[in-house]
Amino acid sequence: MTKTPRRPAPSRPPGAAIAGRATAAGTSRFAERHAARFAADYFRPFTAAQLRVSSIGLGTYLGECTADDDRDYAESAHFAVASGLSLIDTAINYRCQRSERAVSRALSRAVRERTAARDEIVVCTKGGYIPLDDVPPASREEYQAYVEREYFATGLARPEDVVGGAHCIAPTFLAAQIERSRTNLGLDTIDLYYVHNPEQQLDAITPAQLATRLRAAFEMLEQQCDAGAIGAYGCATWNGLRAAPGSRGHLNLADIVSIARDICGDRHHFAAVQLPLNLALTEAVRLPTQQLGAHTVPVLEAAAELGVAVIASASLLQGKLAHHLPATVHEALPGFSTDAQRAIGFVRSLPMVTAALVGTKSVRHLHENLAAARRG
Predict the structure, then answer these.
(1) pTM of the prediction?
(2) Alpha carbon 93 to chain centroid distance?
(3) CATH architecture of 24-373
(4) Domains of the chain: which residue ranges?
(5) What's the CA gap between 78 and 112, in Å, rounded?
């Protein structure tokens, strides 16, 4: 008898999900309400759904799996929305699912207190890594038992689908992750869902095999878009789009987009990529890593040609660029009060970058970061 796949039970009972999704009308309303305090280019077009988002987004990657960090993230996310930030980025594996749950508390508060309406905020999350739940396991053996119990025994993933003991993009696995993320976030619809670091698969399989796996994943994601579980999808990468052609882990954006087009033609919902881009990691703007027809071009140029939005991650390189920048950077980026603002301003200034993600759970730092785009 074939075992019917089921998703792992959530670690806490789901509350009432917030209905709706980000819309063109809602995100424009939010932008109009906050525009007077920001530079003219602060709010930018995003995705084929004609959304508008703040060009500084909130990241939720770093931190400990503690109640204190949960509280700080929920507070900073609500403060961010109240202050004019409309793009929130997270992932199911961040802080053992606790980052998604902290975002849920912030969104619930924002809607309840009328800080913002659901259709004004763009919420993005990711799936691809097997997520832990609440706290890390005490040992490798405990982790393996968790994976066996929650994913292999339930039919949500097969051992041969998992690379490096932790990475999986099988459709059944990703579909279950979407459901879990919707529960964690307390949302009916996730606005943008990323396949998380698909280049990780190339540690164990060939590029041709990855294309086959991505096609199966994209077919499922298109179905999720049609069902209203997600609004659009994309790929969040680390090295893949910056790596040199022919090197291990290299991804070619045109090939990825062609998979989506093969499935749905011009009606496909592949909308965005995420990759690190900052003062120290500038490959996306200066290195020709992407084959586009007869030419090899940088990622930003390829994305512009293909109609794919670019979200820059690691804008402060996990805080390393927030202090002690050289005088030459100060001279090249005048008009800012702090190094963190200069680093964010650099990313925002790059063509084709929709938003610079900045991870923080500090309201003070968030206020400083948003000042990088305040009107002078």
Answers:
(1) 0.95
(2) 12
(3) Alpha-Beta Barrel (3.20)
(4) 24-373
(5) 11
